[in-house]
Amino acid sequence: MDPTAEQPETLPPAIASRLRRLDRAEAIFDPRSDRAVLEAARSYFAARPAAPARRSRWALPLGAAAAVLLAAVLVRPLVFHTPSADDVDGSGRVDVLDVLALARMRAAGGDASGITDTRIEELAYRIVALDSARRAP
Amino acid sequence: MGPADRRSDEELVAVCNVGDAHEAARAFESLYRRHRDFVLRVARRFTRDRELALDALQETFAYLLNKFPPAGSGLTLTARLPTLLYPAAKNAAITAARKARRAAGAGDAELDELPAEVPSDAEPIDAALTALSPERREVVTLRFVDDLSLAEIAVALDVPLGTVKSRLHLALKELREDSRIKDLFDP
Questions:
Q1: Predicted complex ipTM
Q2: Secondary structure (3-state) at B150
Q3: What residue ranges do the domains of chain B occupy?
Q4: What gap in Å lies between CA A75 and CA B86, rounded to an integer?
Q5: Peptide bond before A8: cis, by omega within 30 degrees of 0?
Q6: Residue A24 domain-assigned?
Q7: Residues of A in contact with B140 (CB under 8 A)
Q8: What Cα–Cα distance (Å) separates residue A104 from each residue in A34, A126, B5, B62, B133?
Q9: What HEC string does B67-100 produce?
Q10: How many CB atoms within 10 Å of residue A39?
Q11: How far is A29 from chain B (nearest CA, A)?
C-alpha cells in the first residue's frame, strides 16, 4: 500500500475514545490562567495607539508633530537604559511576556499582590513605546 | 462568560490586528476561549505536569498576542489557527519542562519528543499506543484527538504532507498488527 496515496485512515472507536480520554485537558484547567492572559491582552491592546484617522487638513501639521515625537522616542532608548524593574520575568528584555508575568502575579495574589491595573497598563504602554522605537526606520 | 463568539478565527484575528482596544481585547478573548483547551492538551502532552502546562498555555497566548500590532506586524491566517498554536504550545511546553528539569538537576534527554505515559497497570490499548514512536504517536494524536487534517498536521509539524501520511499509515499498521489490540481492528 502506498502510504502517500490519499486514503481514509481510521482508528477503531474504542482506541480513538481511549486516546481522547488519556488526553483530557479539563482536569488541569485553572481560572487564574484566564485572568492572567486576558488581563495582559487588555493592557496590551489598551496601550496600542488608535488607528490613523481619515486624512484631513490637519494631516500635515499632525504628521510634523508625530515626526518630532518619533524622534524623541528614538532618542530616548539611547539616553535611558531600559528600567530593570520592567523586566518582570528576568529574561533580560522587556516585552509582552513581562506584562503577562505581572498579570500572572496579580492573578495569583489578588489585591494582596500590591499590583494594580494601572501598573500593568503603564508597563504595556512602555513596551509599546519601546517596540515603536525599535521598529522605526 | 457570555455566549460563544460566532465570528470565525479569521474575523477575530482581523479585529485583533486593527480594532480599537476594547474590540481587540474582546476578539482576543474569544480566540483564547476557543483554543484554550487545545493548547492546554498539547502543553500537557509534552510536560505531563499541571503547573508547567498552565505556564506553557500562558506563554503560548503571549506569543500570539505579540503577533498583533504594535509589537508585531499583524497576523494573516493562511491555515487554521491551531496549526500556528501547536508548534508554539509544543515549544513553550518543552522549554518549561526543560527549565524544570534543570532546576531539579536532571538532564534534557528526549524532551523534544512526546513523552510516553505508561502506568504499570496499563490497559492493552494504552500499552499499544505508548509503544508507538513519539513521531507516530504525535501524528495519531493530532489526527484523532485534535481532528486536524493531514495537510494541517503537515503545517503544524512543518514537515511534508507525504511524511505525515507515511507516519500515520505506519502507526496504524503497527497498531493493527499489535496482538494486544488486533481484535479491535477486526471484530
A1: 0.83
A2: helix
A3: 1-109, 116-187
A4: 39
A5: no
A6: no
A7: 11, 19
A8: 9, 18, 25, 12, 36
A9: CCCCCCCCCCCCCCHHHHHHHHHHHHHHHHHHHH
A10: 23
A11: 8
Q: Are B54 and A28 in contact (CB under 8 A)?
A: yes
Cell numbers for A117? 491595573
Lookup result for grid cell 494601572:
A118
Residue corresponding to grid cell 479585529: B15
Report domain B116-187's class.
Answer: mainly alpha
Return the closest-CA partner of residue A39 out of A91, A115, A112. A115
What is each CA distance from A74 to A60, A66, A69, B84, in whole angstroms? 21, 12, 9, 33
Cell numbers found for residue B13: 484575528
Averaged over successive runs of 10 residues, the pLDDT of chain A (137 residues) comes to 56 88 75 92 87 56 68 52 70 80 80 80 77 62
* pTM across the whole model: 0.75
Residue of B nearest to A14 (CA): B184
One-letter amino acid of A43: S
Cross-chain residue pair B62–A40, CB shorter than 8 Å: yes
Topology at the third CATH level for domain B1-109: Rna Polymerase Sigma Factor; Chain: A (1.10.1740)
Of B29, B53, B162, the CB nearest to A41: B29
Our CA-based measurement puts residue B18 at a distance from the nearest CA of chain A, in whole angstroms, of 7
What's CA A36's distance to the chain center, in Å?
11
